[in-house]
# Entry
Amino acid sequence: MSPQPSRKGGFFKKIFGGGSDAPPAQPQAGAEPGAAATEAAPGAGARTDVPQLPLPAHLREKWTRRASEPLLDGKTLSYYKQNGYTKGIRVFDDEDLAFIQENFDKLADHLGVKDLISAGRFLELQMWHRYSEWIYRICAHPRVVSGLQQILGPDVLLWASEFYVKYPGDWRVVPWHQDGAFWECAIKPTRGVTVFMPFFDVDRENACMQVIPGSHLGPHWAQVQIPKQRNKVFQQECRPEDVDESKIHHAEMKAGEVMFHHPAILHRSLPNRSKRLKAVLTGRYSPPDITCDRSRWPDFKQTLIAGEDRHGNNPTVDPPPDGAVGLPNPDENKYAPLDPPGEGAWKKRDPNYVTHDLIEPHA
# Structure
């Protein structure tokens, strides 16, 4: 049984996968001479005024221990290839969750995460893996890496992490979208995997992810701009004709489980109609053959978490050192521009475009 959420200072907690020979995460091991230079030491310019518990030595040893077998069996891997996602794979046990939940509780209380969300300051909930060891170790857990290698191949980069949080009664909607449409304006080829890691159970009542199985097979990057709406998290969504809602699958999961999904799978989440928190950490991963257009994303940095980077296409950053508990400053680590008008996947705003129905707040 997963640890139950507690409440401290008005907040619960939050957060968040190939081959059997997945190694422990190493800082840029194997990069060829002449590869892109590693940038400033992790944590440079980081905030250190936030209370966090350093990762205990016994959890560090546990979270870096080589995976003893592939994470995904043949049936599960086949399901991913056919449907564009696979979920419900336990990675973090009760001991892990107790530490993660307590630590994030401290951060959320201190930073006022609920207020950040209400103010739309989502950038402040991104890229924490660069600065805090325990968050990096979650993203680079050997079992997660094992699954990633099975999907992407032996060489794996981590280049982004983000928190997604919906409090009880949060009526915001993440509209139908494909993750790759947000990457496509900067990252070529648009190859990768998103790993979705909930800290508490997610189900239909507290806004679990909804997916359209098989939608990763196409069409790709067919999002359009939409008029700003009060409860839409962003101003892009997939065209209604590309979404067959009769095929919706509800990605319900237990705390400590992970979900892998393809960058082209259609997915969304609805309002949190429960009295329970939804709190998820996502990691973004790709093979090293990607190239980021830094005119689009000046702060893009990648960390090698498995294998080798034989390409050296992008700036790299080492993992945070053992015991690091910093966080990025708010002005750092911004994503690529999400609104390059008329370019690539982004269509010029069509005043006649009919959006999906606006979902109003529930009583």
Q: What stands out?
A: Residues 1-35, 335-363 have pLDDT under 50 and may be disordered. The domain at 57-306 is CATH 2.60.120.620 (Jelly Rolls). The longest strand covers residues 156-166.
